[in-house]
What does this fold into?
Amino acid sequence: MGFTLADFADLGQYARMNTAHAFSFDYVLGDTIVALATAPVAAGVAVIRISGPRAWEVGASVCAALEGAAPRKVVFGKFILGREELDEGLAVGFRAPASFTGEDVVELQGHGGRAVVQAVLDAILAHGVRMALPGEFSRRAVLNGKMDLTAAEGLADLIAAQTEVQRKQALRQLDGALGERFEGWRKGVMNLLAQVEAAIDFPDEELDVLAAPALTKNMHSLMADLTAALGEQAGARVRDGIALAIVGRPNAGKSTLLNLLSGRDVAIVSDIAGTTRDVVTSVLDIGGFPVTLADTAGMRETRDVIEAEGVRRARKQAERADLLLVVVDSTLGEEIAADMAELMVPERTLVVMSKADKVDGDFPAKVKVGEEWYPVIAANLTEQEALKRVMPVLTRMVAEVGGEATESALLTRQRHKAAVELALQALGHALAVMARAGEGDGSVAELAAQDLRDAASAIGSVTGRTSSEDVLDVVFSTFCIGK
It folds into this structure.
């Protein structure tokens, strides 16, 4: 039995405690579960969801108008506990398997006051229903074949989406685009496995089957697809945010640029060199993409231990950033120091010449660093006019980095990449084993077949085709209660 609302002072504490202790309880498909499906705060409307074999029975006990109602038909009635009236609102029921979870489901839509929600939930719990665990409704949907694991992750990402591109990517994943991609790979492996198993069934033909050019060609082709997918970064960048680092010498105007782009005073601006000692971040929506701006410590040689650590962190931030803004104080010239030049990447770096109002003459549109040319924007970063010059270039660069995510289904989580890596390892081992065919090295076909089964299992774990309970726990532990 999960915690009830009566055990806590408010809905927020209740939600936090249920999340923290979720996995001290087991998922049991036969249970009937309930949860608040809307945010646990005072609101105009609250939706309470019930799922399981007793959903209609319990729902009708709380809202008599639901008794005898047709599935998917919304009815209005009183919400009661015994003879006590708790609230009034709408109720709708869904019969298995035509529901979100694949089970019988009832949703009660009432007023969103905290006391009202608590009373209705307690009335439902009084009928022997237990509180749902985080993500349990979606987990049941997966287990009942209503969606695969990638679609469930897409649902979680859709709920968490903060930008337009994040929404679109999550919706594609929810619609099954990523699942179809992984299923295509799994079927490809299974086709290879069928050919290898033919060598097991017909041992006299083992050498001919394993040495068939089409078999190794198809294996190499599949591995090339998996390797290409592993190298994709756009999906993860859209989900987690595109990293943009601002680097430069002390007092070059880095913090001023961060504040300009953020539209607020995120970082302290001072004439004193070395004011920024740590990485200061701000999250923006640029062209629909989530971008994490990072202002870093001024890069220079220093004996100050704290500032030296700041410089080390600045370099580390720049090295792992997707985009780089190099800020140069134009009053000191246009030369870019070697320690910053080595961090610059073509098509991923913009040079910003600050304090341009204090310099006479024109600035070049591009600057050559080493053998590469980089775009230049010259501006007074203390004026809003500078934003109109920097933002269009920055928006274009961000779109180029994350643009791939708007057109295809991409790997978005570490577990997706880990599964592809395991599959590639297994396929590579299978190829190595098959190369020994004819050398008298035991049953080569059986060894290669096991490698292919391992590859299929790794790929299938992403969609849930061959998932374990541990995989399910990892996926659904990130969900909110009520989803």
About this structure: Confidence is low (pLDDT under 50) at residues 1-25. Residues 241-404 form a domain with the Rossmann fold fold (CATH 3.40.50.300).
